[in-house]
Design goal:
The protein contains 12 helices and 13 strands. The protein has 2 domains: about 200 residues, Rossmann fold (3-Layer(aba) Sandwich); about 100 residues, UDP-galactose 4-epimerase, domain 1 (Alpha-Beta Complex). The chain is an alpha/beta fold and about 325 residues long. Strand 5, helix 5 and strand 6 form a beta-alpha-beta unit. The strands form 4 sheets. The protein has a 7-stranded parallel sheet, with helices on both faces. A two-stranded parallel ribbon has the order 7-10. The model has no long low-confidence stretch (mean pLDDT about 95).
Length: about 325
């Protein structure tokens, strides 16, 4: 088998590469390393089955040769985070929409056997029901979520019109080793671990009673591999932990106490709960997560040195970084 992973130097992408190589695949990675890090694959250095191509996925002509004779494509390259997407919507549209179009076209022309799209649960916005199933209304709250949804629409449409064998996996709150060390949203582990290492208080949004469907990265990778192996096409699946956990519980598992917490204002556009209804993927692909939050956090703590270079966020720096978040997503009309 030959597989291609866009964004393969990134968090989830590098774990996907590890799994594919472990399964005996030849793997080509395309990554412009704008957010991904080649260091995430240092442990695979010298592996004759791995090829890393540093290129922009939007450059169709330069990436097209990488798709020749490829069986599976895992499209994981994307720009993430809320605030930068508000500040630089053109960059997010270019990467997450134009880039997806470029990758789809290359995959279609190469007649790949499976195309796996990485969707985001942020497309649901603030859902009306929990757990949230695939039939929930799509209502993105910010440009990042919208561009990920538009990319998903493209992928499913290419499956319908051009018969590209597409499956879209909608991911909920992924965490694990190699997760991003920057950002004030979507990277809560990076924020908290940097604070833990620096001996600084954990910056908890609101009361901390809000819950998240924290899903360990190897479970995510297993869902992608399972979907690629299956005969299922043209479907979108939620992928989650089958649980939802409070942020306060996460602080507790990281060894924090109430005295080590500072509370910062609740942010507009954020749900009080994320929780994937995974019945569809359970029934159609027979997939279930394996790693509990307790096990996942323990594994992260055993590998905590990765976050020693992470920025140490304080209430003041978070306030500065999220100023545009409140300005544009708040309901006071100030924008």
């Amino acid at each position: 088998m030959r597989s291609l992973v866009t964004g393969g130097c990134g968090f989830i992408g590098s774990h996907m590469v590890d799994r594919l190589l472990a399964e005996g695949h030849e793997v080509c990675v395309i990554d412009n390393c704008s957010t991904g890090r080649r260091e995430n694959l240092t442990h695979q250095e010298g592996n004759p089955k791995l090829k890393i191509v540093e290129a922009d996925i939007c450059d169709g002509a330069s990436i097209a040769p990488c798709f020749e004779d490829v069986d599976w494509v895992f499209h994981m390259a994307a720009l993430a985070d809320i605030v930068p997407s508000i500040q630089r919507p053109e960059d997010y549209f270019h990467s997450n929409v134009d880039g997806t179009f470029s990758v789809l076209q290359a995959a279609r022309k190469a007649k790949v056997k499976k195309f796996l799209y990485t969707a985001s649960s942020s497309c649901y916005g603030i859902p009306d029901r929990f757990p949230t199933d695939e039939q929930a209304e799509i209502r993105p709250e910010y440009p990042y979520a919208l561009t990920k949804r538009l990319g998903e629409e493209l992928a499913l449409h290419w499956g319908k019109v051009y018969h590209l064998p597409v499956v879209s996996l909608c991911l909920f709150n992924v965490y694990g080793p190699r997760s991003r060390t920057s950002g004030t949203y979507g990277a809560v582990f990076g924020v908290f671990l940097g604070q833990k290492l620096a001996g600084k208080p954990y910056t908890v949004v609101g009361t901390g009673e809000q819950t998240r469907d924290f899903t360990y990265v190897t479970d995510i990778v297993d869902a992608f591999y399972t979907a690629a192996q299956s005969d299922v096409t043209g479907e979108r699946f939620n992928v989650g932990s089958e649980h939802t956990y409070s942020v306060n519980r996460l602080v507790e598992l990281l060894g924090g106490t109430e005295a080590e917490v500072v509370h910062i204002p609740k942010r507009p556009g954020e749900p009080d709960c994320t929780w994937a209804d995974t019945k569809k993927i359970n029934e159609m692909l027979h997939w279930h997560p394996k790693v509990t939050l307790e096990e996942g956090v323990q594994h992260i703590l055993e590998n905590i040195d990765y976050w020693r270079k992470a920025p140490v966020w304080t209430p003041e720096t978070i306030q500065d970084a999220t100023e545009d978040w409140f300005k544009y997503l708040g309901d006071d009309g100030s924008a």
